[in-house]
């Protein structure tokens, strides 16, 4: 499926060190290594705190990465990144077993590894927030382009206002309903959102109610459907 392109509006960016482009990228000759490296840089950017690292599970637990590279390919790509010096691997023992941690080969990463090796710090003592590519949910502009059509400046302003008004889960669900009913029109989606805002939204019964499903086609939303 072709990439739909980057959208306008709110889009979280990932910073990359300038040396990645000048020194590291020209040396990487394996696609798997490149994907693992970019994924790790993306992951570290989204972590909080001064000491940022990945575990083996952070790599193998990412379904998209594992499906793309396979277990052996992922292991090989990660080993290449370590051998190249992009990441520093250090073994750390917790209460049950020894685990490999991966730090970016930066001044902060090198200092963290040295502290671990001297026994001054155990980063496994404490909880870490989960991070996944699935967290990157589509914003309203991307949903519009993927399900309705190209953006215009006028519709862009309308969508931005809607994104600030309605919860993201509502917006995604309203788009889903429109696609299921094959009513790919913003006014139809907007009518659903306004109805939920004014009348409330039954989270438990909305998906299973045949009466509710008919409402979108035969009831108050019928005016937004071209028969």
Q: N-to-C terminal Cα separation, in Å?
A: 30 Å
Q: How many helices does DSSP assign?
A: 10
Gyration radius from CA atoms, angstroms: 23 Å
Q: What is the overall silhouette? A: elongated
**In CATH, what is the class of the largest domain?**
Mainly Alpha
Number of E-type strands: 3
The CATH topology of the largest domain: Arc Repressor Mutant, subunit A
- CATH architecture assignment of the largest domain: Orthogonal Bundle
CATH superfamily of the largest domain: Winged helix-like DNA-binding domain superfamily/Winged helix DNA-binding domain
Strand order of the biggest β-sheet:
1-3-2
How are helices and strands ordered from N to C?
HHEHHEEHHHHHH
Q: Biggest β-sheet, characterized?
A: 3 strands, antiparallel
Protein model, in words:
The radius of gyration is 23 Å and the shape is elongated. It is mostly helical and 227 residues long. It folds into two domains: 18-134, Winged helix-like DNA-binding domain superfamily/Winged helix DNA-binding domain (Arc Repressor Mutant, subunit A, Orthogonal Bundle); 137-224, Arc Repressor Mutant, subunit A (Orthogonal Bundle). It has helices at residues 18-24, 31-46, 56-60, 63-84, 107-117, 140-147, 153-165, 168-180, 186-199, 210-218; strands at 54-55, 87-93, 98-104. It has ten helices and three strands. Helix 6 (140-147) packs parallel to helix 8.
């Amino acid at each position: 499926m072709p990439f739909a392109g980057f959208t306008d509006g709110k889009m979280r960016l990932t910073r990359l060190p300038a040396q990645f482009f000048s020194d590291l990228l020209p040396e990487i000759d394996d696609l798997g290594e490149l994907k693992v490296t970019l994924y790790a840089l993306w992951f570290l950017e989204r972590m909080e705190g001064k000491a940022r690292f990945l575990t083996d599970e952070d790599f193998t637990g990412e379904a998209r990465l594992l499906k793309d590279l396979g277990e052996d390919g992922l292991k090989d790509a990660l080993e290449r990144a370590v051998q190249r010096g992009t990441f520093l691997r250090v073994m750390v023992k917790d209460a049950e077993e020894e685990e490999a941690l991966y730090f970016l080969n930066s001044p902060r990463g090198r200092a963290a590894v040295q502290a671990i090796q001297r026994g001054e710090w155990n980063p496994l003592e404490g909880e870490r927030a989960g991070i996944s590519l699935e967290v990157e949910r589509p914003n309203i502009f991307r949903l519009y382009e993927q399900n309705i059509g190209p953006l215009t400046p006028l519709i862009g302003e309308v969508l931005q206002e809607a994104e600030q008004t309605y919860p993201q889960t509502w917006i995604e669900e309203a788009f889903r309903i429109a696609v299921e009913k094959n009513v790919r029109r913003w006014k139809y989606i907007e009518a659903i959102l306004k109805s939920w805002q004014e009348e409330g939204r039954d989270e438990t019964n909305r998906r299973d109610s045949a009466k509710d499903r008919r409402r979108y086609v035969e009831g108050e939303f019928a005016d937004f459907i071209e028969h």
